[in-house]
Amino acid sequence: MTFNFWSLDYIYYPVSGIMWVWHKVFGSFLGPNSALTWVLSVVFLIFTLRAILFKPFMKQMESQLKMQAIQPQMKKIREKYKDDKQRLSEEMMKLNKEAGVNPLASCLPALIQAPVFIGLFHVLRMFQPVNDGPEGPSVWFYRANVYFFGQADVVSMGEAKLPGGAPLVGFMTMPLDQLTFMAGDRAAIIWWGVPLTILAGIATHLTSRRSVARQREMNIDASGPQTAIMNKLMLYMFPLFVVVGGPFFPLAILFYWLANNSWTFGQLRVAHTMQDRRAAAKAAALVGKFGATQPAARRLSR
Question: How does pLDDT run across 56-99, given as a tens digit for each residue?
């Protein structure tokens, strides 16, 4: 494959490049054709990208705290200028600037993660065998290369199987002739796919529940209709999407979901601990400077 400037190769090449590096690392002692090597390559691709995004994630958390802190002022401005859209926009921009809030900062990590998922999904689908089209007899074959991976790697990934004969790039609803070419076993794919899907859904739910619980810890008003709807989507619809979509995604993507949401859950705990320590340090400083009580100082520090 050659780089196409008018495509999403800007995403596909970096994603496949990081995965290629980890494949070489784990392949050096587990064997390049090992299914475990390929699973770890996908998992550590996620860990690498999430580690790179950790600093923007922390900035997102800080931005969210600032936005939550100015919500009362925002409400007053909306009520005061509800009939003057231009003035409302100006006053809200002014308040954001004074508070050091950048609304886009809270969306940046999510906006980056979406292309990463699309890129990984596309790259993994490229490892699946393809046929020569509708004309003539259908002949399945592997591509000559997939971005940073040569054909030997493409064949290796396509033929990598979990115990029982489940291809990593296979999915539960894969067409029979394509699965037959890969010498895969659908029952084995289901045997692996169902638990992975359920675990990924549980990890998604736990991550969402952690975020909702944090709102309560920070005394954030979640009674508004928009917040309530978003919380329900996070707690139930997002995990349901993972479970319902599981049969249509390669097993490697299910490992991605499980690893990504497990990382997110751990990262939230770390981020919240760091925020609490900073708040405690500010509270201690206020106590020393003004003699405020600890609870009052913590409220002021936020």
Answer: 777 777 776 676 667 778 788 888 877 778 887 888 888 777 77
- pTM score of the predicted model: 0.80
Q: How do the domains of the chain map onto residue ranges?
A: 9-131+139-301
Could you report how far apart the first and last alpha carbons of the chain are, in Å? 52
Distances (CA, A) of 124 to 54, 170, 244: 25, 10, 20
- Cα angle: 130, vertex 132, 133; to 5 degrees: 105
Distance CA 66, CA 281 (A): 17
| Residue 153, H or E segment | helix 151-159
**Which tokens in the block code for residue 270?**
């770390």
Q: How many angstroms separate the CA atoms of 91 and 85, rounded? A: 10
Please give the single-letter amino acid code of residue 189.
I
254 vs 196: CA distance, rounded Å: 6
